[in-house]
Design goal:
By secondary structure, the chain is an alpha/beta fold. It is built from twelve helices and seven strands.
Length: about 240
């Protein structure tokens, strides 16, 4: 998977850090203030949107009386303490970041989250020891699945899209990587479980934890597809460097 890779680009929430658990509770609490129940498909509807785009969606769909900056400020206030103290890295992520640093492979974070919450978790987990570039979709000018953020992070790192590898957990994020011309490894996250079929159809690789990248036990999804097309049962394994 890492052969010829000069830069690895990470989505943040649900990919590099385990943070999606808090957003359902925040959305329930926030919408409850205005007399709304949490719609079942809300997370899927806002998937990939930038922080500002999500605020526009909430204001228009739920007719919120506050302006966009007030809505975003409310979310930051409700989430910042958790990002600063309760959000851990996903399994195997720290070892993988150390591996990239040791082997001179550059890295960047491309997140739909706010700069304030990105900064909070960066300080908490000391991500700046390993990550070379941090960017939000608001700063890039478009949310996912637009390719803008991945193209701009790659450019800042001084590498071409073909020399990058993206890690993502949602269909919209995976599509953003594809639209940027970058191979994508999907990272399992329980909060997008219902979309696993779509994720596996889109991505090039699939992992449960980042240790699988290094020990070679990740799924090579394109190889699986080729084996199925040939009438063979896929083994779902690939050697490091393939």
């Amino acid at each position: 998977m890492l052969e010829h890779v000069k830069a690895v680009l990470f989505d943040l929430d649900g990919t590099l850090v385990d943070s999606m658990w808090m957003w359902k509770d925040i959305d329930i609490e926030y919408l409850g203030q205005y007399g709304y129940e949490l719609p079942r498909e809300l997370q899927k509807d806002i998937e990939g949107m930038s922080f500002s785009e999500t605020a526009v969606y909430f204001k228009e769909r739920f007719h919120l009386p506050k302006n966009l900056e007030e809505i975003k400020a409310d979310w930051i206030r409700m989430a910042k303490e958790k990002y600063a103290h309760q959000v851990p890295m996903k399994p195997g992520a720290l070892s993988f970041l150390k591996y990239l640093k040791h082997h001179g492979i550059r890295s960047g974070i491309a997140t739909s989250n706010s700069r304030e919450l990105l900064n909070a978790v960066t300080v908490s987990l000391k991500l700046d020891r390993y990550i070379d570039c941090f960017m939000t979709s608001c700063e890039a000018g478009a949310g996912k699945p637009a390719p803008d953020i991945y193209l701009k992070v790659a450019a800042r790192l001084g590498v071409s899209p073909e020399e990058c590898l993206v890690f993502e957990d949602t269909p919209a994020g995976i599509q953003a990587g594809i639209n940027a011309g970058i191979r994508v490894c999907a990272v399992e996250d329980q909060y997008v479980g219902e979309q696993k079929g779509t994720i596996c159809r889109l991505a090039d690789y699939y992992i449960h934890d980042f240790g699988q990248v290094l020990d070679g036990t990740y799924r090579d999804l394109k190889a699986d597809s080729r084996q199925l097309a040939a009438g063979h049962q896929p083994c779902g394994r690939a050697a490091l460097g393939s």
